[in-house]
Amino acid sequence: MDDAIRRKILELLDAHRIMTVATLRPDGWPQATTVGYVNDGMALYFLCALDSQKAANIARDDRVSLTIDHDTAELWTISGLSMAAHAHRVTDPEEADRVLALLPGKYPPGTTLPVKMPTRDEVRIFRVAPVVISVLDYSKGFGHADLVTL
After folding, report:
1. Which residue of 13, 51, 94, 127 is most buried, as measured by CB atoms within 10 A?
2. Boundaries of each Pyridoxamine 5'-phosphate oxidase N-terminal domain copy (predicted)?
3. For residue 15, what is the enclosing H or E element?
4. What CATH number does residue 7 fall under?
């Protein structure tokens, strides 16, 4: 992967905290859900309820698609990421605790979270490993995207 595109991907990952993740339901229909995330380099992590449909979907088929972007008033400033990836449940207690400790850092300094952070036993934590990343950047032209395969 080109170093400039890697920096752009990491810049976009670091600048956001919300993504839409799509999983496959048992009936074959995709299910898209907005979730908070944290990244450690190119690895993304998100949480969900123990009994969520997302967790059940991923347990059956670990393939996910996701998008990370933001609204903008200027057409030429549209940028974002979309990915095809595999989601894996985090079972290592040390990794789970590290992820939970990283999450509050995605919010602006001084932000008080309205609820206490869950413990690793209260949620499912998933690590998302990208396979294909599309880097959308309209500053390079209408609909411009660079495709990266990992």
Report:
1. 13
2. 7-107
3. helix 3-15
4. 2.30.110.10
Instruction: Write the pLDDT tens digit of every residue in 33-88.
Output: 999 999 999 999 999 999 999 999 999 999 999 999 887 778 777 888 999 999 99
- How many domains is the chain built from? 1
CA dist 105 to 36, 64, 109, 117, Å? 12, 25, 8, 12
> For residue 139, how many other CB atoms are within 10 A of its CB?
10
Query: Tokens for 94?
Result: 């040390």
- Please give the sequence-ordered ranges of beta strands (E in DSSP) within 17-70, or none if there are none: 18-24, 30-36, 38-40, 43-49, 63-69
pTM here is 0.90
HEC profile of 69-123: ECCCCCHHHCEEEEEEEEEEECCCHHHHHHHHHHHHHHCCCCCCCCCCCCCCCCE
